Amino acid sequence: MFLKLLGESIRFAWQVLSTNLLRTMLSLLGVTIGIMLIIAVFTVVDSLEKNIKDSFSFLGSNVVTVDKMNFVQRDPNVPFYIYFRRPSNTYDEFEFLKSNLKNASHVAFFGTRSSTMKYKSSSINSINIYGISNEYKDVYEVDILNGRYFTANEIESGRNVAIIGDEVAKSLFPFESPIGKSITSRGQKLVVIGVLAKEGKSLLGTPSSDERIYIPYKMFTKMFYVGRFGVSPSIAAKGYVEDIGLVELQNEMEGMLRKVRGLKPKEESNFALNRPEAIADAIGQVFDIVGYAGWIIGGFSILVGGFGIMNIMFVSVQERTKIIGIQKSLGAKNYFILFQFLFEAIFLCLIGGATGVLIVYFLTFIPAGGLEISLSMKNILLGVVVSSVIGVVSGIVPSAKAARLDPVEAMRAG
């Protein structure tokens, strides 16, 4: 019965389309534009959100870091200088957490500071030099294209070795391999043992591994002052997947840090526990507002389109009044007539919606600078669902009118 109704509805809808092509196209235009606007807004919003979140991928995932201040949601009543007066993380605290944390798979320690790097007559400025512990590669992704990672002995002894980013390699060694060569910064010579794979620039211009250099942390302390008025290192702990929201890890870290720093129960913590997801959540709230705006803009267009579809359905009922009378006289039930016209309205809206989605799909091929735009299956399904709902809303009144027609009066009207 369903397939029969669907087949007849598609056939009648096609007749409406082919017989009154211009009228139908103008009526479907509102649905097409409305769906196109909504899907376009959500596609751009989703793409922007993804690209921006990818820009913060250097912060890692499923990771909790110990810093002086929060990434987001700082207390507005606390003066900014208070955060700088907080004690810096120490290597001893890192080793204590690494030895005692039960809810962390790996714990890393690192500090960063920008500097100039030289090789012979070539130099590159504002390069982020990271002093890292051996566990850094287990917490954050370190994708080495050529060469190797540090050995445990090189890390522990603070050897003068380095892993450089793609941009550093191209700037200092445009015509030769950097492996085994010595580069200089702040009076220290560093032997290159590895080159990172190219990452490319992010949408927000956030730090990229292309302009980064990794060295052992103990070597880093020979080049930069570490402490309250110098570099403030971070401790990063990678949690387990089963620890939803890393709640257990954060609670354990807070308890251990308060203990090792000798804080009393009523004293406020003099450190901040941060998660990259906090930034992602803040970004998501902004894009939610943009999404609501998309619904409002597209909603008006869909409303106009819905009235257009309703008009087509009323005309279709009027033109097929005699046919309805014949169907009823032959035993057709009211629900059969109702669903016949309702499916027709849904089919017409789906044509308009599919056209809108198709337009958005072709628009994604237009270059948008550093923004990579893609139409997701979620948004395609959204277009289909919204079109179907508009079809039901627009077609229910004309369909109900057709279903309630008296067969005798319907045949006389024809």
From TrEMBL:
* Gene Ontology CC: plasma membrane
Principal cellular location given in the protein's record: membrane
Q: Does the keyword Manganese apply?
A: no
Ranges of residues in domain MacB-like periplasmic core: 24-224
Q: Which GO terms describe its molecular function?
A: transmembrane transporter activity
Membrane spanning residue stretches: 21-45, 292-314, 335-368, 380-397
Which Pfam families does UniProt cross-reference here? Answer: FtsX (PF02687), MacB_PCD (PF12704)
Q: Which InterPro entries match?
A: ABC3_permease_C, MacB_PCD, Macrolide_Exporter_MacB
Q: Which UniProt keywords apply?
A: Cell membrane, Membrane, Transmembrane, Transmembrane helix
Where it sits in the cell: the answer is: Cell membrane
Q: Which residues form the ABC3 transporter permease C-terminal domain?
A: 296-407
Q: Does the keyword Acetylation apply?
A: no
The membrane topology noted for this protein in its Swiss-Prot or TrEMBL record is: Multi-pass membrane protein
Q: Which family does it belong to?
A: Belongs to the ABC-4 integral membrane protein family.
Under what name is this protein listed? ABC transporter
- Record organism: Roseivirga echinicomitans
